[in-house]
Amino acid sequence: MRGAHRLRVVLVVWKPRVADDPSDVTTAGWPHVLQVQLARDREVWEPPGVVVRPGERVVAAAARVADAVGIGLPNLHRVLAVDERPAVGGEPAELMLLVDGGWCTDADVVEVPDCLCAHERGCRHRRRWATAEVACADDAALAVGLGAAVGMAPAFVVAREDGGEALGVAYPRPSGR
């Protein structure tokens, strides 16, 4: 990884429309996706994530995210999508790994006394369940990761050409396309 990049781990956590049949998106519709909003930024909602600390394993970073939002990680640790995000506003470019955070119900997401994320001390997050259509509208990597999480598609790498828009291209490409 180049020096101008940082590695970020983001959890794809979803709430099925029908808890008894979590993979039913055909009749029940797409699930809701857990999003957080930092107390200091009241406009941006995003999936929960952290920047990986030097020497930290990806699974440990994912566990830190899960602890911060009050959930447990599933036993199967898998990366659902990889996305390279260009540098914006003086921040370095990011390589994002979208990790399977599993599915939850409202009762599974609990308040935690102190945030364990990488933000400032006393950081508090607001949480919400957003429809997949809202959460994924401007985030191709999240759409790909959510599709892989609910079993609708294999995991993808989200490709960008010349640092532009995400294309949502599968690697390797399915045959015949």
Keywords:
177 residues; alpha/beta; seven-stranded mixed β-sheet; 3 helices; 7 strands; disordered C terminus
SSE topology:
Layout: E1 5-15, E2 32-38, E3 49-51, H1 58-69, E4 79-85, E5 93-103, E6 125-131, H2 132-135, H3 140-149, E7 156-158
Parallel strand pairs: 1-5, 4-7
Antiparallel strand pairs: 1-2, 1-3, 2-6, 4-5
Q: Write down the secondary-structure element order.
A: EEEHEEEHHE
Strand content: 25-35%
> In whole angstroms, how far apart are the ends?
30 Å
Write down the overall mean pLDDT.
77
Number of helices in the DSSP assignment: 3
Q: Uncertain regions: pLDDT < 50 for 5+ in a row?
A: 166-177
- What is Rg? 16 Å
SS elements, strand count: 7
Overall, the morphology is globular
Helix residue percentage? 10-25%
**Mind summarizing the main beta sheet?**
7 strands, mixed
Computed structural class: alpha/beta
